[in-house]
Amino acid sequence: MKVTFIQPAIGKKAGQKYIGTWKMEPLTYATLAGLTPPDVELALMDDRIELIDYEADTDVVAISIETYTALRAYDIADRFRARGVTVLMGGYHATLAPNEARQHADAVLTGNGEKTWPRALADVKAGRLQKLYNGQPGYVAVQPNRSIFEGKRYLPITLAEVGRGCGHHCEFCAISSYYGRAYYPRPVVDIVQDLSGSRHRFHFIVDDNVVARKAHARAWMRAVAPLGIRWAGQGTLTMARDPELLKLMFDSGCRLILIGLESLNDSNLDQMGKSWERALGERDELIQRVHDAGLGIYATFVFGFDGDDERSFDSTVAFAAKHKFYTAAFNHLLPYPGTKTYERLRAQGRLLREHWWLDRSYTYGDVAFRPAVMSPERLSELCRQARHEFSRLGLVGRRGWAALRRAGPRLWWLYWAMNLSLGEELDRKMMVPLAGNLDELPK
Ligand code: SF4
User: The domain spanning residue 28 has which CATH number?
Assistant: First the structure.
């Protein structure tokens, strides 16, 4: 039996290249490959870097979908199914919207795939495939099989995970809609084995919160420190209350940490279910502690909660400039299906497009709901302007020395590359049509 994994793309503008920073190794398929019996032949097609071969010789196509890639995934799936190829679908979007995914798949696998994937493969072989496989959240020891990436040109960064779940439950977060407040640690021995066999020195830990369970974080960070790797990851500002943890992060190779600060407005934090961040203490001091530990911060902010008005943007950019963040993102709120934000906006009649992810006229940067005090277009434009303002050459230069001190010389080139291209890259992403222009030759 032959299985072909397909990584769907978001979309691209006609005649243009796919966005470079969206071309990371898709860890999900390496994990599924690690769970696949050896008698099954595997292949990977990545829509982001190559044309999909719709005539490929395969018995099964397996697609993991996110909300942004759902429309493209359905297009691809429909073409393979029209030829009689069995299509299996999973991923976060399929988990949060299984009935929608079922219209384009022979079977939908919700949740984590460790138990459902081997079962579904066995059922395909035996000719008794079910329509739905419900995976429970959890962690089953498995090593990703990254040999499926051979010959593909990805960014030179290894993606890995150290656990699943976050421990918090923010209103807009699709991840926590699945995991709730639960957290599932990956065994430390598996993390060490995985990272010590990695091809690259730089790693991105894909977890939503690497400090969700402090004891686990301390254990794996101590264990990987001797490997001499460098890593970046995502975490909450709670880390700043624990000096020992910050030191361990640095000693284990962390140089850059993405922190979702989201908003400087307390009523917004309350609305998004993130008031716990206010209870941590003085925000400026906590940020300083992270910086003092030698960690650069990639700060992310989200606009469009009801307390935001036009002044919110200037004050947030000034705050980001004051702290000389390594880099920052100024995004508008997106109502992901299955989240409490989505349900709230729908109940308030504020969704402009109920199924925006299936709408071929929707483009990257469009706001899919009606903000409280400004137009959707204005919200999108102010986010774009904030990013441009933060990537002004003068400001990037002023932040540059801080970045060198915090993240070290090896990541300094990345600092310049990321920050100087920030505004330009955003302009290239804006107006990217969902599922658009992907069957033309990649550049
Ligand atoms: S802290 Fe981040 S990952 Fe965790 S629930 Fe909130 S938004 Fe999601």
Answer: 3.40.50.280
Domains in the chain, number: 2
**In this model, does residue 424 exceed pLDDT 80?**
no
pLDDT, one tens digit per residue, over 223-274 is: 999 999 999 999 999 999 999 999 999 999 999 999 999 999 999 999 999 9
- Whether the predicted pLDDT of 443 surpasses 60: no
Q: Is the CB of 35 under 6 A from ligand 1?
A: no
Asked whether the beta carbons of 207 and 234 are under 8 A apart, the reply is: yes
Q: Which long-range contacts (CB under 8 A, 24 or more apart) does 118-123 make?
A: 118/35, 118/36, 118/37, 120/88, 121/1, 121/3, 121/36, 121/37, 121/40, 121/60
Ligand 1 contact, 236 CB (< 6 A):
yes
Residue type, 242: D
Residue 175 Cα to ligand 1 midpoint, Å, equals 7
The CATH number of whichever domain residue 387 belongs to comes to 3.20.20.70
Assign 304 a pLDDT band (cuts: 50, 70, 90).
very high
Last residue of a domain, one of 134, 168, 192: 134
Clarify whether residues 81 and 160 are in a common domain: no
Q: Best of 92, 164, 173 to mutate for ligand 1, by most ligand atoms within 8 A of CB?
A: 173
Same domain, 130 and 184: no
Ligand 1 within 6 A of CB of 208: yes
Which of 144, 136, 137 shows the shortest CA–CA distance to 35? 144
Domain holding 367, by residue range, is 156-429
Asked if pLDDT for residue 333 goes beyond 60, the answer is: yes
214 and 110 in a common domain: no
